[in-house]
Amino acid sequence: MWRPVLMINGFIMLIMGVMMTLPAAALYYFSGKPDYVFIQSAVIAVFLGGALFLANFGKIEKISILEGYLITVSCWFVTPLVAALPFLFNYSFEGVYDAVFEATAGVTATGATVLKDVEAEPKSVLLWRAMLNGLGGVGIVIFAVALSPFLGTGGMHLFNKENSDTEEKFLPKIRYIANDIILVYILLNLCCAGL
What we know:
This protein is mainly alpha-helical. The chain has helices at about 1-30, 35-55, 65-85, 85-90, 95-105, 125-150, 175-195, and strands spanning about 160, 170. The chain has 7 helices and 2 strands. It is globular, with a radius of gyration of 19 Å.
């Protein structure tokens, strides 16, 4: 029962760790200075996430409803905690609560902040905040679309389409739908970033 939960949480930690390298690379590209806060955070997230993922890796045939709920709840706890690592190591945040609050606000796309002067923060922190808000905007949609076929509950009627000629049910690949949503979201973010 715990294998799929731990594996998916490990995968999310891996993704977050890889995402943390982007602000570090951006700061290095623009200023020539390495950002050790994001590098340390990425190493921790990739190491822990990789260990969880590889230790529990295996084929998942069907996820039970209980496992689906456990995955959803645990991911909503793990994601902000991992996302808070760069904030925790950054001196602008006074403690764990501020770092976790900032990360949770980003992942849920609320836009709330504990920072008094956001613009005074390093560019890498600003980019990380923007990335978390972007993740929060599309994350809930992708998460719901990706999990609904495994749970066999609610939402599957959205994917069933009746063909008038053959009266057969057509179930498109959920992966393609999720990829299309992500692609549109990335394109919209790039357009907004260019303005």
